[in-house]
Structures are given as C-alpha cells and as structure tokens.
Request: fold
Amino acid sequence: MRNILNSSYREEIYSLEKIESLASLTLIGKPLEKRELKKIIDVDILIILNDPMTVEKYDKIKEITEKICKKYTTAEIDVLYAIADGPMKPKSFKKQEIFFHIILHTLSSYKLMPLLLCKNSWQQFEPLKGKAVKEIQSFEGVSKDMLLNSTLGISSLIELVEKDSSGYIGWEKQKNSRIMKWKLFPLKFEYPEEKADLYIYAVLRCASNAIRYLTRDNTVDIGFEMAELFKEMFANLKNKNLPAELLKHKHLLRNKIYSKDIHELKSKTLEFLNELKEYIENT
Reply:
C-alpha cells in the first residue's frame, strides 16, 4: 500500500508539474510520509491553471490522472480519482483505496469560489510548484460571519446534514465552444458511510474553525490536539466531547469499519452544530 501510494503520487505530481498553463500546484494536508497508513487514503491536490479553462486543459489533467489510477490499481487496492471541488468520491468495494481528489480551478474561478473557510485553511500550505494560494487570494483568518454564514459554515452545514446532501464545483462543456464553465452540481448521500463522512466533517471542521475564530490562530488543524483544546475552550457546552469521539470514529471509517448507528450520529451532529451556533452568536 505504501509503495503504491508513494509511486502513484510521485508520478501524478511529476506529470502535473509539466502542464504549461499551471499557475499553482499544492498538496492539501500533511506530506504523505507523515500520514498514518489506513485502508482509505485521500490525497487532495489543488491545481490552479491560468485562464481560461479549456476542454484541452481539462482533458489533459483527466488523462494524466486516469492513466496513473489504472496503472497502479491492483486486485486488492483501488486507485481512484475525481475532478471536483467538494465531497464527490467514487465508491470502492476493494480492501484498500487510494483516492486522488483533484481540486481544479483557474485563477479567476478560484477567486470566485464561495468556500471561504476552505480557502482560508488552504493558504497555510506551501506550493509544490508555482504561486502559493495565499498569493492568489489571502484571508486574515476566520471571521464571525464567515464561521456562521459562509458556505460550509455552521448554518450551511446544519442544512446539509438535515438534508443528507452537499454539492461540488465542477467544469461543464459549452455547446460549440472550447471554453468550459464552472458550475455547482448537487450531491445527495445515500450510503451510511457517505452520510457518516458528512456528519464527521461537519463536527470536526466547525470545531476547528470555531477555535481559529476565537484564538485568531489560523494553523489549528483537525486532530486530537484540536479536540482537547475544544473541550477546554468550550467547557460549558453539553456536546464538547463530540469532536474527540468522532475523531476515533473517523479512524474506524477510514479503515472500513462502520461502528455507529447512522441515525444517532446525525442527531448528535445536529445537536452539536446548533449548540455551537448559539454559543458563537452570543460571543
């Protein structure tokens, strides 16, 4: 698994770095060598190209990634990909899975993309090639309005969890044109593990962003240290322990062990989000 992960990633990056229209190439998250090996491994790669997005540019990135996924897929390990800004993920039934999540933008679409909390988080990562994302668009940190009201903020995630839905930004071909347009596509979650992923994301992301808002520290990331800090800072909340609990469940989920009752998990998630929302509104 480790060899396939490292080899496929190196080949993917090597190929992407050669794209002439590349403005920025960034690995989102920890370097691969610092990541724990699990049965499901997500590799988020942010690619920003010079404008405009054309069919040729899009097809080139698709061709590179598809070729690598086919090359490294085995009888027991799926190497999959999706080109989407959002939680769009192919389903695998194999024992292990490597997922290349290609977040594809042009300079203009990146600046217009409404996921402010994501972009605020991404600006801490240094580029593999080209401009740092903070040079393309910078943020001073999480504001109260951003935390409460922006896309994938607390209010937004309450609505998505209630509906078991989300959306992703993708690229759409235009009739009689080589120029592609970006569009928000709806996404409905059907499988229990997909729903669990959404609920866990909602709790952990809102917890880390709430800490970032109150501390003005934009480097706070999702992990057990964050969960312990959340318990200290939000000691009066009834559901202060939920981020720590769901970090353990996330570990099981990444190893294809689904141990939670999905209805109970949804109920706890909504209770946590609504309680946190009320607390932030009154600070």
Observations:
- The chain is about 45% helix and 20% strand.
- The chain has a mean pLDDT of 95.
- The two ends are 46 Å apart (CA to CA).
- The chain has two domains: 2-138, 155-168+175-281.
